[in-house]
UniProtKB/TrEMBL annotation:
It comes from Leucobacter alluvii. It comes from the Bacteria. PANTHER family: NADPH-DEPENDENT ALDEHYDE REDUCTASE 1, CHLOROPLASTIC, NADPH-DEPENDENT ALDEHYDE REDUCTASE-LIKE PROTEIN, CHLOROPLASTIC-RELATED. The lineage of its organism: Bacteria, Bacillati, Actinomycetota, Actinomycetes, Micrococcales. Pfam families: adh_short_C2. Belongs to the short-chain dehydrogenases/reductases (SDR) family. This is SDR family oxidoreductase. SUPFAM superfamilies: NAD(P)-binding Rossmann-fold domains (SSF51735). Keywords: Oxidoreductase.
């Protein structure tokens, strides 16, 4: 039976055929190598014109949540620029093809989010190739587990904060002059901001920072008519997990701790980003929308 995001389903039984499997991929990991494949909404997301004429920049848009969001945005009518690491070109080109099939303008902009100059150039290039910018999704992220703080190197701590926090700051600051009233900024945080795992101290710390950044900036920009919000995913099946985001012994039980008893799929996140990007959420600012399978948050 064909299904889209409007199909009535039992969420506890959804994706019962996609079980996480042990596998190790070198960081950053590729959707092309992920087993089983994550659902990005390629076959299921149905657009209704909710973002017609909009222009979006999505970091980490080659795979996982970023790719699912890019697909949804394109099918809702938005032109889309995606940022990703050069090593992820295979995934990026596959997603770019899906976006172009939706009939929108697509820009592929590879680079490293740890590089401030790339982040600033990224915004300029997105504006140039799309003809403007009114949706920014800060989604690209780094997650590498460490069992002990003693094993967490200065380099990893720095890389995690630069990728997850500094890039958000650099990109958002560069984007502001281009954002007119009605524009939206959406940041990806995590359940880790509320319930940090002992092995993800650096990653969880960045996600709590993103929550605070989102709420503070929302208050600052609301009078200018620019809304800032965040989405906090729970355990979602992406290449981040088997590329040292989780220990291998935890992969097969990934997501079992949620009330639904399963991991989520990127396709289940995309509608949240569409809602926050669209005019339907016109009175929503400073909000963190949790999409985590029912895990309690403050």
């Amino acid at each position: 039976m064909s299904r889209d995001q409007y199909t009535f389903v039992n969420p506890a039984e959804l994706y019962a055929d996609i079980k996480p499997q042990k596998q190790h991929m070198p960081e950053p990991g590729l959707d092309a190598d992920l087993t089983p494949k994550a659902d990005l909404g390629e076959e299921s997301y149905r657009g209704t014109g909710r973002l017609q004429g909009r222009k979006a920049l999505i970091t980490g848009g080659d795979s996982g949540i970023g790719a699912a969001t890019a697909i949804a945005f394109a099918r809702e009518g938005a032109d889309v620029a995606i940022s990703y690491l050069p090593e992820e070109e295979t995934d990026a080109q596959r997603i770019a093809g899906i976006l172009r099939d939706a009939g929108v303008t697509v820009a592929t902009l590879p680079g490293d989010l740890r590089d401030a100059e790339y982040c600033r150039t990224l915004v300029a290039d997105a504006v140039s190739q799309l003809g403007g910018l009114d949706i920014l999704v800060n989604n690209g992220g780094k997650q590498v587990f460490q069992e002990s703080l003693a094993d967490l190197s200065d380099e990893q701590f720095d890389d995690t904060f630069k990728t997850n926090v500094y890039a958000m700051f650099w990109i958002t600051k560069a984007a502001l002059p281009h954002l007119a009233p009605g524009s939206t900024i959406i940041n990806t945080t995590s359940i880790q901001a509320y319930s940090p795992a002992a092995i993800l101290v650096d990653y969880a710390s960045t996600k709590a920072t993103i929550n605070a950044f989102t709420k503070g900036l929302a208050a600052q920009l609301a009078p200018k008519g620019i809304r800032v919000n965040a989405v906090a995913p729970g355990p979602i099946w992406t290449p981040l997990q088997p590329s040292d985001g989780q220990p291998q012994e935890k992969i097969e039980e990934f997501g079992a701790e949620t009330p639904f008893g399963r991991m989520g799929q990127p396709a289940e996140l995309a509608p949240a980003y569409v809602f926050l990007a669209s005019a339907e959420s016109s009175y929503v600012a400073g909000e963190t929308l949790n999409v985590n399978g029912g895990m309690p948050t403050p």
